[in-house]
Fold each of these.
Amino acid sequence: MELKIIPHPSKCRYRGIHGDWLVVPSQKYKTRKFPMAEYRIKLMAFNSAAVIAVGIVASIVTSTIVASNAYRSKFANAEIAQQSIIVKGKATKRVRSDQGDWWITVKGTGESIQSAHETLDIGMKRVDSFLTDKGFFNDEITRGAISTTVFYDRDFDGNKTRDVIEYELSQHIGVSTTEVGKIAATAGEVTDLLKDGIFVIGGTPSYTYSGVSDVKVQILANAAQNARTRAEEVTNKAGGSVSAIKDIRQGVIQITTPNSTRVSSYGIHDTSTIMKDVSVVVTVEFGISGS
């Protein structure tokens, strides 16, 4: 059987199915018949191709979006990772010297070597008594070798002759003790022996602290903490927060007189005072997050 198609005034096409045949009008409004199975195969193939094409397009679009987001995320993370703040931190600890060193020079002069030596010997014994009276022990006192200086006469032209005018003998006395207060109290009094005719010269005491290595560890930690505190004060006001340390550089240890502002790129090791300030500056780079 066939389904006859009558053209409509609006020129619409009409398709009908009759049995196992598909009936469609031709361009001249004549009916044509197609086997139903063939039509279904062609329709399924077309639909499959359309689905595959849509899937490929969707996959490409999705991959592009994911890659774009990943790139933007990677760039943003790299930019955040590069954000940092560099600050300096300082720490100071006051210490008391635990070692004092001092020297005294005694001289004896005479027209002969013997008389010069006698004068020197008198002076040395007088200084020994002075130090003993001040509480110093024998194991805290050392005596150096005697040095001799000969002074020659000169002629009318100013040239030296072989005639000896005077001999001068000198000897050093070293004082080393952990009782630094004794040195401080005695150093300014030794020249009083000049009143007794003793030719004596008092040196400048030297005070040192043996625990600098231990203090160094402590003040480095304090300086780093001081740097973090400064960094947090700045970043918190800017709406960020300090993260991990990226880099830290230690400055030179400075050992100065109390409240001194002196610094040196080679470091200062002052020995003139019993009390000292041990200080250090560190430069720290911190990462910043959340800004």
Amino acid sequence: MLVSPLDLPQSTSLWNSVYNVYSVLGLASLGVTFAVMFYLIFRYRSKNGALPPVAKQKEVRDSWKGPVITMGLMAVVLVFVGAQTLMAFPTYQTVPNASASPFGGCMVSQTTPNLVFARVPNNGTNLNICVTGRQFFWSFTYPNNMTETQLIVPVGRIVVLNVTSIDVYHQFGIPSFRTKTDAIPGRYNVVWIQPTEVGNSTIQCFELCGVGHATMITTLVVLSPAAYASWYSSLGGSNSG
């Protein structure tokens, strides 16, 4: 199903456009495949049990234009969709002040190799949160070192999530934001979101991590700036988060 970028948070709109490109091409390929199949079934069907003339059979065997045209079209499509995917990565820009901004209890350097595909825009008000996966729940550590089992964030702000695990491999994902990254022991992977409206979204693990994998679910809670400031202050943090 095609999804309008207007239905998604701003930080995911380009990824959604890439998804729509793949969906349209997939449907087009399905239509062309069935059209060609039914044409060939009708065109070369057996008539009263008779086979096509030998000359025509040889002509079909010796034809090279069809395969060449097909492979050429496939190459054009693959280059096009590949370029669309690569063009989506610049949506994420430089991690702002990563070495100076605490991710709860986990400091991250800008030179960390696995930040290459986690570049985020810098608007000076980013909220940095450390996400830890363990069997079978998530924990979220805020800059004041307080830890929660739900991800609570303010609407409108860029939220930078530094994701890791303390036991086995997990995969952190927020489906409504089209956001996923691996949670690997001893490694930090960074993703970011920017909520555009107040509400709740599901967070879950997308990699089989044990018998409780299906229960490794929590909630992203997006609050108004005032409600978030009040909640964060109740944890003993500043209003800025």
Amino acid sequence: MFRSGYQGASVRDICAAAGAPQGSFTNHFRSKEAFTEEVLDQYFDYLKGLVSQALTDETRTPRQRLKRYLDIITDKLECDRWRIGCLIGDLSLEASSQSKRLRQRLDAIFQEWRSLFASCIAAAQSAGEVDSKFDATELAEFLLASWEGAILRMKVEQGPAALERFKTIVFETVFKVPGSFELGTRHRAAGIARRHSKQSARARSPGNQHRQAIGKKP
């Protein structure tokens, strides 16, 4: 299904890839739809393991854990040479309009997936690492939807540019540390003020005024 998609992978193709007789398939699954739901569940279990690996890492701050998850997924996608994306995203595009059963399962998966990230984002907000202007659940929804879009773009380009662009921008805007821009601006302004103060002090010094007076003599 990663390579051929939901529509492109027939029951015969699935059995051939598994090296199993077609009768075995019908003994275990009533339809390709039922089989796909089982695949989705197993894939999501695998994905939740990666989420847990990143978001429960107590050696990192909550904001760092969010970044770590995206880096872990980037490494996994690189192993497939940027050609294979996220099965949840792929089936959301292809199967949700074809199967009510799969659409409902995908929606439930996204809600559970979102809740895992919402908890981490809420922790980041409590720690002052992320602005609390927006609800943590809404931010989690934005993060997942945008990340899935970046993965789709990655598959088209067969390269990491879309992923790296997303990570850079999202952590410099939506998930930037509150006050970091203002703090940097204040530091730069203070530096400029100090330089101007030193220049003014040198200009007012007796030695400099004497040199200026000599320079003005005819």
Amino acid sequence: MNELKNKLNTVKTIDWDSASVSFYVVKRKLIQRSAKYDIFHVNVDEPLRKKLRGITSGKIKKSNVAIEYDFNTADLDDDLLGLPTTDTDLHAILQTLQGDEEPQTVDQYNALLGSWLYIARLDVKDQPPLFSARRVSEGWTTKKVMQLINMVFQNNMLVDIGKQEIFRIDDKVDFFTYDGIIFIADKKNFETALNFREGMERNRDEIVKEFSSLGLFENATAVSDLVGNNLRHLRRLSQVKKAGYYKDPNFLASLRKVSEEDGWGIQYSPGGKLLVTEDDIETVLRVLNNDRLTSKINAENFDVDIKHKLGSR
């Protein structure tokens, strides 16, 4: 947590308004739910560079808090979520952008169609580069672009500008990365842009293998079957993996004791292994992530989707 805070503070001390700017578009192909990314450089003029600097700099100036990425966390207004770049598909994209060879430069308008993501690279002398990213509208396909009617407002009327070659950007930033950390402003767009659901499905398969090797469940495969591709369950299971409480024998012993005392209905086999069904998969995942909490003020019990340890913000 301190690393996120310190890194964001460093980002905020740098004068990004003076940065040089390069612009890239990224195209994505899904092959058996695994993403492949192609990156292209796009020449931009100085007025657009100035706007891109301003969009990124403005977002950084408004953002004062960064907390650790949680699979269950919603967007947090001007706060940011943070995680290592290496945990995401962006790592491979950055390897291309920072490689010895510049990506191919777009030389015709049609090459922009089908873009999935656009990235502005900001460089300030003696500093690591900062990459600011925004997911492109799903409507930006050849078929849908040809259906658009493009107009501008001039002399008190809307004027048809016909088939001019237009590429749209807006004034928002979905995420930016600096020195190995991604700061996420729009969680939904971040997860969509970088195929994060595929990562959650990998987490599902990996943790089920761990459950099996630890002997935690009577039938660990049942967890995988019940979670399936359900996004809510995938998020919660990924957070279980990230938190790692299931590896702590003391936590597991306390879980069983409290469940029996408070009538939570968590089921165990005669051999002491967890049982799970469609009716209680949500509860089992919740308690394995320590998401059933008691207020120290009035002893009320709560099921929570998002929690932060005291002193963690």
